[in-house]
Amino acid sequence: MATWVTQVLASAGYAGLVFLMFAENVFPPIPSELIVPLAGYMASSGKLALAGVIAAGTLGSVLGALPLYYFGRKLGYERTLAFARNHGRWLTVCEPDIRRAKRWFDRHGGAAVFFCRLVPGIRSLISLPAGIGEMNLAAFIVCTGAGSALWTALLAVAGYLLGRNFRDVEKYLDPVSWVVVGGVVVLYVVRVVRHSRR
Fold first, then answer.
1. Mean of the pLDDT values across residues 182-195?
2. Which pTM does this prediction carry?
3. b or e along 135-154 (b: 16 or more beta carbons within 10 Å of the residue's beta carbon)?
């Protein structure tokens, strides 16, 4: 997977990074923890600019957060609960999950959106209760953008500082990234089965 990400970045540059970060929010097995450090490494070799990597990564993250936000906003709380009741097994989400997320968002609001953008695994999911809670779109974009920018900057600078040593790390990334994807798929299947039994 690291090879594929590198090829996308090499061929499409910043547009490729925007696409990858958008996809990471929609399809989490493509992790930003892999994408952005690779882009940061490319910046250290002069193929991209570090500021451009941070900007493109942030833009992709914000764009990727919008579908779930609009999904939650369009359906509203009750219909989202009904959706989880009827189709939640495929998303491994049940009504209590949504109720807890909604209560948590109601308590913390914009801070929840900002800080959750820094937490792997739930970065994209916070968009759903934000939409259900009808958070102001401009405020949602600002909080999402700020959190995404900080997260992207940390990863990009890490890849940039690794510089030449990144090649030594990169040879381990492909097998590790495929193991991670395999683990995510297995975990998904297990959760679907458990949710169906529940």
1. 57
2. 0.77
3. beeeebbebbbbbbbbbbbe
